[in-house]
Specification:
two-stranded antiparallel ribbon, mainly alpha, 70% helix, Arc Repressor Mutant, subunit A, 13 helices, Four Helix Bundle (Hemerythrin (Met), subunit A)
């Protein structure tokens, strides 16, 4: 048995591959469940008004459902005013409303029953991301820092959620690359999916960017560039509470 397999089997394996918080073993594959997960994802900022959802061929595997089930769930969201379908090369399902008439029930179904476990998983994610940032500060090379700074500049200048989300992803991918361990990258992706309705998508809203994301990004990149693992780890541990905070606001909103 390799060291990595031993770690997975005894520690992260049961967490990441056991009972899913909002994966198929809890919510199943029903149209209602898929609709609830997508409505919740929109409510917490995984998909923002004006943003296109991923195409069906990509979204169905992310949700572990067949395309007919996904198509029916999207039709219900369309009828409820959450999305509109636009034709053409730049078309697709475009989000219209962040919180609609289905949101209260969707959040109660997807988030409230599993809240305690979501908090624990979020804590684990912060620990893993802190370790990644510390390691990146110890191992970074000039090319890694250059990639972080390019993504940071794009994120700070982003005028819409599409660019903000892409540049956020590119920045954190550059941090993971600097850490030089592909298994950390896998853990990061899987934990994000587990704390966020099964989708490995970071919430991006104007409020989150103003409050935490932009200043924390800058401080994180500076700490890694300066080779300061303690500061980088502390910033990352705080920064990666963003997804949990977005879920918390949604849960608080439904009482």
């Amino acid at each position: 048995m390799t060291p990595e397999k031993a770690i997975n089997d005894t520690w992260l394996g049961p967490v990441l591959m056991g009972r899913s918080v909002m994966g198929r073993s809890v919510v199943g594959r029903s149209v209602d469940a898929v609709m609830d997960r997508l409505a919740t994802a929109i409510a917490v900022g995984d998909f923002s008004p004006g943003e296109r959802l991923p195409p069906e061929r990509e979204l169905a595997p992310l949700l572990s459902v067949g395309r007919p089930t996904l198509r029916e769930a999207l039709a219900r969201l369309r009828d409820a005013g959450y999305i509109v379908t636009r034709r053409g090369r730049t078309g697709g399902a475009v989000v219209q409303d962040g919180w609609g008439r289905l949101s209260n029930d969707a959040v109660r179904s997807t988030l409230v029953p599993s809240w305690d476990e979501l908090v624990e998983l979020s804590d684990l994610r912060c620990l893993v991301e802190s370790m990644t940032a510390r390691t990146a500060a110890e191992r970074r090379q000039p090319a890694h820092v250059a990639a972080m700074r390019t993504a940071l500049a794009d994120h700070e200048c982003a005028q819409d959620s599409v660019v903000a989300r892409r540049s956020d992803h590119e920045l954190h991918q550059a941090v993971v690359a600097a850490a030089g361990n592909r298994h950390l990258a896998r853990l990061s992706r899987e934990l994000l999916a587990r704390v966020n309705v099964g989708l490995a998508i970071e919430p991006v809203t104007d409020e989150l960017r103003r409050r935490a994301v932009v200043p924390q990004h800058r401080a994180l990149v500076d700490a890694i560039a300066d080779g300061d693992p303690d500061t980088a780890g502390a910033i990352a541990r705080e920064h990666f509470t963003v997804a949990r905070d977005a879920l918390r606001r949604a849960v608080d909103r439904v009482g």
